[in-house]
Amino acid sequence: MDNKASAAIDTAPASRGFLTRRGLTLAAVLALAVSWGFLPEFTVVVISYIGLYALVAVGLAMLTGVGGMTSFGQAAFVGMGAYATAWVGTSPTAAGWLGPLAGSAIVPWIGLALGLAVTFAFAWALGAITVKLSGHYLPLCTIAWGLGLYYLFGNMDFLGGQTGITGVPALVIGGVSLASPRALGILIWTALLASMWLLHNLLDSREGRAIRALKSGRLMAESMGVDTARHRTKLFVLAALMAALSGWLYAHMQRFVNPTPFNLNIGIEYLFMAVVGGAGHLWGAVLGAALITLLKEKLQDVLPSLLGTSGNFEVIVFGLLMLLVLQRFADGIWPALERIGQRLLRPEKAKAPSRVAELAHRQLPAKGTVLLQAKDVTKRFGGLVANNVVSMTVKAGEIHALIGPNGAGKSTFFNMISGVDDPTEGEVRLMDQPMQTRPARDFAALGLGRTFQHVRLLGTRSVVDNVALGAHLRAKRGWIASMLRLDRAEEAALQAEARKQIERCGLGAHADSPSASLALGQQRIVEIARALASQPAVLLLDEPAAGLRHLEKRALAELLSQLRAEGLGILVVEHDMEFVMNLADRITVLEFGTVIAEGKPAEVQANPKVLDAYLGGVDEPLEVAA
Ligand code: ADP
Ligand code: MG
Question: In this predicted structure, which of 299-308, 340-349, 543-552 has the lowest mean pLDDT?
Fold first, then answer.
């Protein structure tokens, strides 16, 4: 049977179900489509609203759950989409501009274009500013503009103030009026399902891997060549556009708009939907939208008679509910359903790619070429000099080790030469280019691959997925191509490259396992495979042998020797002296941020300063040199 797939799930017994996940989805959609004509009017209206809310919640699941950016302000973007089309459809000014088109069936589509354009411009500007904020500032900022826009809607005379705009025309497509919820509901759910298909494709691509790294691995992703700030802005704009699309549909469903549905309360409800369902899962957001919509419906009936007064009490109940759900299901409800699904559904068979593209290929410089050079690099943290006039080179076809006691400044130096941090003084050159103030992704583009002392993998993603991110810069398909599945040949090549590097590093058996399920030492090796997937000219390894067993260390040493023979330049920061002494061509020793020795292993080993500084503390009492 399908051993590979079930091994990846590991707890699931051999699945007996006859439906795959995709089959189940199609069946559900088909069932909805077939029953649509027979459902009671009220049900149709509720399902249509669920579709409208789900459009916003799915965008928010991408932004918050996948991208790690919390927004309370999505309702404002819904308002933009709604008001734009309401204004275009009713205002005499707009009618004047539209001329003979005014009153025609095209008008709502012009409204859609305007809504999306305004939202795009606004979200891009807002995103460029707000997504740079970190911690609590981003959510606070979304509250600020969520409130701001809400009051703006209510105070603009041309948008009808608090009363809003009535008489929004119905949508007409090909002569068919979508005035009834039953007709418009079809368009709403088509829009929702189509967006979900596009987003699903996006997440299952090169760009999707970059997006998934935004939440917990930005520094890592930058080092793999991903422009994370740009991806965050794009994700922000994407979520805003989905909200605006929902607003457009909403306006043509209600046929009037006023500010109330776009206030902060509703923005918080959208967030509930995304989080309760399971932020980070597209279908979780749909589930959340359905649950909250139905619950709100019930609560609005029940609460006033229960409490004897009317008010927005459902918000309080939502808050309590969210606490309960998150207590029980930390990641929302969807992941729990997914586990059941894994047991009952037949695993999807991976389709063999019909075409495999070529990945970009780097010509390695001749052996002996200086690849990476640090000249008199000094780094101060306030009064502390972490690196004091440190110079070193890494040449093609050579393994250079950097050693020194704890706190000597090795990791600091590592950050200087990999673009994570800038030297206070001195110069760093990579491939003979000055690299000061340039971001880590520029280092990656020039051929620097690296690992991290504290492993930075996306733990829930498979090993292949993690390693494929390393090859990010060797492919180029963007968001739109990925959404439309035009990236398949390239994606197949990325997957193949990732598997090749995993095999090479001896982890072939774990390729499809979540990376967090591997032992820490193996995770370090995954990091090496990821770095190799970028086809680097220079490889920087921060303590690669830590946590490895004897045989694994030997395998690692063999791999590094082989890479050296292929012409890579390698810099290793390592504690294991035996490992370093047997492997390195040259060794640089740091103590208190200063280079105290440099040379071949035998020379360094015999250097009394090194014995004192590095080994002295362990074997003998420290002596002060006379
Ligand atoms: P190593 O990797 O050799 O153990 P580090 O480079 O991590 O050493 O640290 C060198 C010194 O710089 C230490 O004294 C450490 O406390 C200090 N240091 C490192 N990073 C920072 C920072 N961001 N701010 C202030 N001090 C730092
Ligand atoms: Mg360190």
Answer: 299-308
The CATH number of 15-344 is 1.10.3470
How confident is the model at residue 616, as a pLDDT?
55
Using the mean position of ligand 1's atoms as its centre, give its distance from the Cα of residue 407 in Å.
6
Q: How confident is the model at residue 399 (pLDDT cuts 50, 70, 90)?
A: very high
pTM of the model: 0.90
How many angstroms separate the CA atoms of 293 and 109, rounded? 28
Residue 346's DSSP bridge partners are 20
- Return the residue whose CA atom lies nearest to atom 27 of ligand 1: 381
Residue 406 Cβ contacting ligand 1 at under 6 Å: yes
Write the residue with the smallest CA distance to atom 24 of ligand 1: 381
Domains 15-344 and 370-447+536-613 are alike in CATH topology = no
More confident residue, 412 or 17: 412
Residue 6, pLDDT above cutoff 60: no
Third-level CATH fold of 370-447+536-613: Rossmann fold (3.40.50)
Nearest CA to ligand 1 atom 19: 412
CA of 200 to the centre of ligand 1 (A): 42
Distances (CA, A) of 352 to 348, 355, 489: 12, 9, 11
% the chain with pLDDT above 70: 95
Question: How buried is residue 202: exposed, middle or buried, by Cβ count under 10 Å (0-12/13-18/19+)?
Answer: buried
Q: Which of 379, 384, 589 maximizes ligand 1 atoms within 8 Å of its Cβ, making it the mutation to test the pocket? A: 384
Instruction: Sketch the domain layout of the chain as residue ranges.
Output: 15-344, 370-447+536-613
Structure tokens at 165: 């705009």
Axis-axis angle for helices 228-254, 181-203 (nearest 10): 170
Of the bound ligands, which one is closest to the alpha carbon of residue 454?
2
- Measured from the alpha carbon of residue 546, the closest ligand is 2
445-502 pLDDT, tens digit each: 999 999 998 999 999 999 999 999 999 999 999 999 999 999 999 999 999 999 999 9
Task: Calculate how far, in angstroms, residue 589's C-alpha sits from the geometric centre of ligand 2.
Answer: 13
CA 228 from centre of chain? 9
